[in-house]
Design brief:
2 domains, single chain, five-stranded mixed sheet, 8 helices, Rossmann fold, about 30% helix, alpha/beta
Length: about 280
């Protein structure tokens, strides 16, 4: 399916964009991806204002709209899937009544549109495929002997996280990039340490289907794979985006990519989500 055409430069000149993330009071890297995307969109000058807001760190969700002067506001959750945060936390904190909310703001009447989270957009699958293809081509891997492992957070009590991760994995499998596409999770089966049992492939390209390179993507997942998160290549991967590896673990070769939400293509996803 072709991607939508980019919006004209004048489409949002009177509008504000608010990028919403999880955030963390304990790990500053959790917010870095959303800050980078906000900087990129400010640089393009498409919106009158570009703001960021977070659930777990300042600026907080319940205060951000008081900082917005524009009458038209687009709120884009920089999250992997629909779920508790998009359906309960954001609407409650920002006093949203549905997809479109009309209220009185600091500058007068305000129309606020709550968009879908970035992880649900089909362009995310293409961004992951492009990153995996760079590893395959750069290292001359045999696609027939390569597994693309998509790692999600998962939640044993709420299946929406794993369902979205699996949907992306299915889209990647349909592209035929590698012979095997698998999923693994932090908090539900199949768990990350068990990934090798599910595939005979000698090579594995691991992509966290997460929106930031915070604690989970930078530390927890590598450790569960038997990798050293303090390895210098891991730091370069986080800073520059080049996958780290190969690492030899139990007879397999692993290339580790930074979280999908750090990909530059997310800026285009955000623009697609606010476009009519």
């Amino acid at each position: 399916m072709p991607m939508p055409s980019p919006p004209p430069a004048s489409a949002f000149q009177d509008a504000a964009l608010v990028l919403v993330g999880h955030g963390s009071a304990l790990n500053a890297n959790t917010a870095q991806a959303i800050l980078d995307h906000a900087d990129e969109l400010r640089r393009r000058g498409l919106f009158a204002e570009v703001h960021t807001a977070f659930w777990k760190q300042a600026p907080f969700l319940d205060e951000i709209l008081d900082r917005v002067a524009a009458r038209r506001v687009y709120v884009v959750p920089n999250l992997a899937c629909k779920g508790y945060i998009t359906q309960q936390v954001i609407p409650k904190a920002m006093a949203l009544t549905g997809r479109v909310t009309h209220r009185i703001g600091a500058g007068g009447p305000m129309e606020i549109t709550l968009c879908d989270p970035v992880g649900t957009h089909p362009r995310m699958s293409r961004a992951i495929a492009d990153r995996a293809r760079s590893v395959i081509d750069g290292h001359g891997l045999d696609p027939a002997d390569t597994c693309l492992l998509l790692v999600g957070h998962g939640n044993a009590r709420n299946g929406q996280s794993s369902m979205q991760t699996q949907a992306v994995a299915d889209a990647l499998a349909a592209m035929g990039l590698v012979a095997d596409v698998r999923t693994a999770f932090l908090e539900q089966d199949p768990k990350v340490p068990d990934w090798a049992r599910s595939t005979p492939a000698r090579n594995a390209i691991v992509m966290p289907f997460m929106i930031s390179n915070g604690l989970h993507g930078a530390v927890d997942v590598p450790q569960l794979l038997g990798l050293d998160p303090e390895h210098p290549a891991m730091a370069r991967m986080a800073a520059e985006g080049h996958p780290a590896g190969p690492y030899e673990v139990d007879g397999r070769r692993i290339w580790y990519c930074r979280a999908a939400g750090c990909e530059p293509a997310v800026a285009e996803v955000i623009l697609d989500l606010v476009s009519p």
